[in-house]
Amino acid sequence: MDTKRSAYSHLFSADSNLESRPTSQNSMDFNPNIETAEMTAATPSSYTGSSSSAVSWIAWHCSLPGNEYLVEIPECKKFVTVAWIEDEFNLTGLSSMVPLYSLAIDMILDLEDEDNSDNSTEESESGKASKLRMVESSAQTLYSLLHQRFIITKAGLHCYKERLEEVEFGVCPRIGCGGCPVLPCGMSDLPGVSGMKLYCPRCQDIYKPRNMKFHTVDGCNFGTTFCHLLYLNYPELVPSINQESFADPSQAISKYSVYTPRIFGFKVSLVSPTGPSMQWLRWKEGIIEDDKVEDD
Fold first, then answer.
1. Residue 195: DSSP 8-state
2. Is residue 2 part of a domain?
3. Which of 246, 268, 292, 293 has its CA at a distance of 20 to 30 angstroms from the CA of residue 151?
């Protein structure tokens, strides 16, 4: 591919207001007004930008509110460079899923739009702005699909392993999980189907982020494979039911537990209409019940 700087690059100037860029991704509605669970959200990482006067499209995109959980693909230089995006093998099948694919990939890679240069005098300003918005929307969708593929590579898994160890994505809202760190996940591999969720490896359930800005993040940025593949490659990241610490001793978490409903000190029967008939779903072998300790 041609590596010339893009005609779009002036839009990403470090001196410009990043919030003024079109945010077509935020137009997706994943019912942000419905909150199903409370989640401790991580503090967004500070964005340092590029050392040059221009900010790359990828850096700008990952700095948008709600995109703090994404990684900048070329920034994972320990294993890979920006050439990963230019590898045709990694782009297989995406051209049929994303409209204006060629323009979108050029925008992501900060390449020059030759058609735009040739027709700059013929198109009206409103036409250029309309086209730019469409290309921007396609670029965001394409990056979501590329991100989903990249994070299941060795480089991507390593990046998120380090972030998970820092509890960057918050902890599980379920009391019985004892503050177990969670990981971003998706419920679909296709764009525009579902928003991003947070997965807990202890209770093996998903939760909606508490912070509203994450409600419009497309779940296809992470897909359905990422979480489980990461824990398969790094099983030490899954705390056991009796483990009281996670990675760093300063990040202590409690033992796993299952809530037992009681009335005047007596456990509610499993056959009662209001009893814990589905308690077995949370049960794990090796749990020490508080009532068994008291009876002894």
1. B
2. no
3. 246
Tell me, yes or no, whether 242 lies in a domain: yes
Q: Give per-residue pLDDT as tens, 158-211.
A: 999 999 999 999 999 988 888 899 999 999 999 999 999 999 998 889 999 999
- The answer for 188, left when phi > 0, alpha when psi is -120 to 50, beta otherwise, is beta
Whether residue 4 lies inside any domain: the answer is no
C-alpha separations of 11 from 129, 132, 173, 285 in Å: 12, 11, 40, 56
Rg (CA), the chain: 23
Under 8 Å between Cβ of 277 and 267: no
Task: Find, among 28, 225, 13, the residue nearest to 141 by Cα.
Answer: 28
Same domain, 281 and 227: no
Pairwise CA distance, residues 79 & 159, whole Å: 10
Among 134-143, 206-215, 260-269, 275-284, the least confident range: 275-284
Residue 79 and residue 202 in one domain = no
Measured between alpha carbons, how far is 1 from 41 in angstroms, rounded to an integer? Answer: 39
Range of the domain at 291: 262-295
Task: Phi first, then psi: give them for residue 195, nearest 5 degrees.
Answer: -80, 170
Residue 257 lies in a domain: no
Please provide the distance, in angstroms rounded to a whole number, between the alpha carbons at the two ends of the chain: 72
CATH of the domain at 192: 2.20.25.20
Full-model pTM: 0.70
The helices-and-strands tally (H runs, E runs) of the chain is 8, 7
Pair (140, 205) in one structural domain? no
- 145 and 221 belong to one structural domain: no
Task: Please report, as a single letter, which amino acid is at residue 124.
Answer: S
CA distance 196 to 183: 10
> 61 near 136, Cβ under 8 Å?
no
